[in-house]
Amino acid sequence: MAEKFRASLPANDVLDILIVGAGISGINAAYRIQSHFPKYTYMILEGRGQMGGTWDLFRYPGVRSDSDLFTFGFEWSPWEKLSPIADGESIRQYLHKSASMHGIDKKIQYGHLLTNASWSSKDCLWTLKALYGRQQLQYKARFLVFGTGYYNYNEPLEAKIPRIEQFQGQTVHPQFWPEDLDYANQQIVVIGSGATAITLVPSLAKKAAKVTMLQRSPTYILSIPNKALKRPWYCHLLSQKLYFMVRRLLWIISGRLFIWYCHRWPDGARRMIEKSTTQQLPVQIPYDPHFNPSYRPWQQRVCFCPDGDFFKSLQSGKATVETSIIQEVVPDGIVPASGKKLAADIIVTATGLQLQMFGGVKIEVDGKPLNPSEKYMWNGVMIQDMPNAAFVFGYTDASWTLGADITAKFICKYLKYLERQSYRAAVPYLPESISLLPASTINLQSTYVTLGAANLPKSAAESPWTGRKGFIPDYAWLKLGRLDRGLTFIK
């Protein structure tokens, strides 16, 4: 079958698959492709000097996963440790080990920044331009996989903080944490209340004189045990491989059940989280307003803190929380609207990410620019009018890798379908006569998502022009859904 598809190659130097990005998404896609198509040629272009994507970029104190590694890890390379939450260094080591075990690391071209991707319907090929230092290189490929994530690696989200230029201390964004920053015995204000802030506060509090988390509005925070979990009795009845499969499945099910409960009975979920939070707060910090969000659980992402480390830092007195908008920044701190000045030597702007698709690559189809933000997603994996290309998009209410693996498995199924039908390419096509009602691509109401929504492809409620629907419906579509609906094929 592979030979039928490869017979259309005009030259020996044309790649079958080109993967952009050597993070979680790119490494997983590479494994699936080489497992299903051992004769296919593929390459991974990575703009940075190391593999790992987010986990190589983010180096702020305490950086860790915000979902369990049993499902965040690869299905084909189980997370063998017993603790579900892992720090950044452990995740980097895991990625290197997983990639090297299967020779994926030898397929990566580091320091190769893809800048342009141009599709030719005449040749059924992508022409790619990449920068390697000052040298411009060119590649050709039949199929593209964008494992570039959904945010800008080079520019953080610029938060509008009144008079921040007046501050005479050091301002730091977690995305670009200085390696030589000495924050011992310093007064630190962390602006934000998301997963990054919840991670930073307890880590900084170990060395800093005082850490204040300044939030405009609170978020839901849940403590989860992260000490080495004991293996249950039934694991002794199973092989190691089967045990890892069962453990992964149980974590997938329990995670989906929790989210379903939050959506189905939001008041009950709110009370449950309130009870857990109140029990861990010191007497001087009240639940309301600091931990009582105005929205329902999972309208924004629920934050998890392993072994309650965030609350322990509050109990120690080394950390505290303030809920208020910022009135102004002064040379030695921040004055919130409450009027209570917060002294600061360092301000950390943990205010979110700047959303960006395709890593900022300029895309053309038959000589015409294609703007992904003006197009609809096809089943959450392809983009309208963009032939032979998949964009890896994970989940925001579950482990990213679960969605990334759905995409990788779809790519393999899609390529096999092209082989069987003797097609060279396919493009998601939406007739002008069909009118769709746009829906949110990322089903969260976080500030950075709202601000960056215009940079994302559109989604609709009508199939197949939807984004991610959830692991179970996406998996069902992968196994049972039609691949020809909404696609135009090229012989």
Rg over C-alpha atoms, rounded to the nearest angstrom: 24 Å
Alpha-carbon distance between the two ends: 15 Å
CATH topology of the largest domain: FAD/NAD(P)-binding domain
Number of strands: 25
Biggest beta sheet summary:
9 strands, mixed
Unreliable runs, pLDDT <50, ≥5 residues? 1-12
What fraction of the residues are assigned to beta strands by DSSP?
Answer: 15-25%
Mean of all residue-level pLDDT scores = 90
CATH superfamily of the largest domain: FAD/NAD(P)-binding domain
Structural class call reads alpha/beta
Number of helices in the DSSP assignment = 12
- Please tell me the CATH architecture of the largest domain by its name: 3-Layer(bba) Sandwich
Integer count of domains: 2
Basic shape: globular
| Helical percentage | 25-40%
CATH C-level class of the largest domain is Alpha Beta
InterPro entries: FAD-binding_MO, FAD/NAD-bd_sf, Flavin_mOase-like
Pfam families: FMO-like, NAD_binding_8
Organism: Exophiala bonariae
Protein name: FAD/NAD(P)-binding domain-containing protein
Architecture overview:
Pfam families: FMO-like (PF00743), NAD_binding_8 (PF13450). Its cofactor is FAD. This protein has 491 residues and is of the alpha/beta class. It has two domains: 2-154 and 354-490, FAD/NAD(P)-binding domain; 164-349, FAD/NAD(P)-binding domain. The chain is 28% helix and 23% strand. The protein contains twelve helices and 25 strands. Strands 1, 2, 3, 4, 5, 6, 17, 18 and 21 form a nine-stranded mixed β-sheet that branches. It has a five-stranded parallel β-sheet with strand order 7-16-8-9-12. The protein has a three-stranded antiparallel β-sheet with strand order 13-14-15, with no helix packed on it. The radius of gyration is 24 Å and the shape is globular. The two termini are 15 Å apart.
